[in-house]
């Protein structure tokens, strides 16, 4: 995967060409000041002053000076800058898109921050709804700080060209979302998008789902996208009705869901998908690749977005990623246990 493959999946690059087969959207260019605001650590919504607590050391060292001024030494006021142009663009877009939108940056949405919204979704109706999601998302931070992760011709971040994408809100059945993998113009694999659930109706309609998606690819996307190798997400609204959701690069930057990238890069695993020749009269247009979906409750996988609802210390302890935290935890447990053992001896 190269940088250009990532750039070709930039929303504003592909949307004008495919806007008739995807969700209606608006794009708002972001200034460097706004991007810097998104990169900053604190979560302060524009225009809202926040009382932030200082550390104990700061309080002790400056307490006399603060008290002399009649101020609370434990707090300071942080005021976020105003972004009038972005605010106006968001409000105008929300009105144009019938009152509710879901946000994303050039390549990804803040799905991992959905838990922080009042209804647990990305449904937004005001600028502050959007700012809160963007500021709370690790996925957004990753795009801002490491745009070209896993690119063989150079990693790093994009310095300009970030955009806020607002898409018209649409209630979607997650069981009908699928990620599709195209290699050298062949649709080689399809994966259920929501790997944290088992939907019985997928098995019942497996052939129809595959035929609808492969037909959509052949008629709407084949040789029309900038690359011959890429991934795309679709929503099957109804039988024979498929809606394009997004494009992503074919590489480790994209979640392979029920597949692995080793599988997808192994040419022996996928002999054929949808034929890549427009002149092949023998091509029946059917899907001959691999379709993976959760067949029973035992195959359900953890939802990666739910990890963000758990304190990072707990995640690190459970996964063993941070040995020092495990040592600290054991030390604390020993300190708690020691007085109990001494009291038992008495």
TrEMBL record:
Signal peptide coordinates: none
GO annotation (BP), single: cell division
GO CC list: cytoplasm
Residues annotated as transmembrane: none
InterPro entries: CDC123 (IPR009772)
Record carries keyword S-adenosyl-L-methionine: no
Keywords of the record: Cell cycle, Cell division
Keyword Cell cycle in record: yes
Record-stated family: Belongs to the CDC123 family.
The protein, known as: Cell division cycle protein 123-like protein
Record organism: Acropora cervicornis
